[in-house]
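mind reviewing these C-alpha cells:
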Amino acid sequence: MARRTRFLHLNFYLHEINPGVPNSTMIFVVNEHRSSGFGSVLIFDNVFRVGVQPDSPLLGREQGLGVGSNLQVYSGITALEFIFTTGRYNGSSFAVFGTVTGGAISDRTIIGGTGRFRMARGYILGRVAATTNTTTTWEMNAYIAAHRS
C-alpha cells in the first residue's frame, strides 16, 4: 500500500521547573559553572500542556538531555523526545535534535517519531512565553511531515 505524507502544525506549551528548586524537572549531571555553560550536562523530564497556564490540560512529557557546547555564549545541543500521554496522539512521540541559544527563538530539527509520528521530519520553534523565579514556560510550534499508510 502506498504511503501518504501528512503535514501537521502542533502548538503547545512546555512547562519547566528550573534546576535547583524543589521538585525540579531539570537537573545538572555535570555543572561547569562557566558563564557560557560549556561542558555542562542537563537532564530533563518536563510536561507539555495545551496552554501557558500550569493547570491547562496535559498533553504529555518532554524527556531528554542538553550539553553546553559553546565557549563564548550560553548555548547547548539538545536531544529530546516529546511523548504524548493523552488525546489524539496518545502513545505517539517525536524526536528532536538541535541547538538552543540565548536568542529569542530556538529552531530545532524533528528527526523521527513513533506511532502517528512514524518517519516524522520537520522542525520545531520555541520561544519563552512566561517565567517566574522557579519556572520557565516555552511556546512550542512543531511543523511535522509524517507518513501515513
In short: The two ends are 7 Å apart (CA to CA). Residues 63 and 85 are 13 Å apart (CA to CA). The mean pLDDT is 93.
